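Checklist before submission:
- one chain only
- standard amino acids only
- sequence pasted in full

Submission:
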Amino acid sequence: MASRRRRRRGENFSLMADVNMTNLVDVALVLLIIFMITAPIMQGGVQVQLPRADARPVTATQGVTVTVARDGRIYVGDVPVSTFEEFRTLYPQYMRGKGLRDAYLRADSAVPYGRVLQVLGMMKRLDVAEVGLVAEPQMER
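Returned file contents:
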């Protein structure tokens, strides 16, 4: 009888402690693409057609954004406000909740100037340290 040697499990196999980089790179690229697609969507806010002006871009992001939409509705952050009375109560609460004293006013270019001044005046009466007006940069000729 020929001696037959049986292999034991794992006898001819050595352990490999390498990480499969192909799968790791695939997952990283998929996540990168997902974040590139969703990042602009998450910046959101209320869509308005800002007026163009010869102004420097706003660099500070510390502040509450108040938006006056084309239809005249007022938004504190992303929260719609239906009346000036509601704005008068909601705005100071929102500012205290965020712990901020600065604000940015965005208004659609089709909103009447008087409506924008009403909102600006109300913001000033409610003790805002500084209000910045947001505009699109003027196109270069």
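Reviewer check: The helical segments are 21-43, 84-98, 113-125.
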